[in-house]
Amino acid sequence: MKNKLLQIVDWMLTILNKDGCLYQDDVVDFLVKQNLEEFTRENSDGNLVLGKKLLSEFEKQTKDNVVWVRSEFYWRFRVKEDEPGRIARG
Question: Is 0.70 surpassed by the pTM of this model?
């Protein structure tokens, strides 16, 4: 399972590097299409989101250069105007 987890994170990083941002819905869609639902979970609103292990590994590998834009549900590279932490205003 760890190997699959790292492969998914590598895919996420590839998309982020190519597009400059990574939408949570795109990752969930990818996981569903690849029959990797074990890396998702259902949130309190009944939506599929990234599972805690996958999210934790992604955050570990991107902690210094990526932020989460909560209002739009995507990650992007940090810019100098961003405040400290993982969540960007937006």
Answer: yes
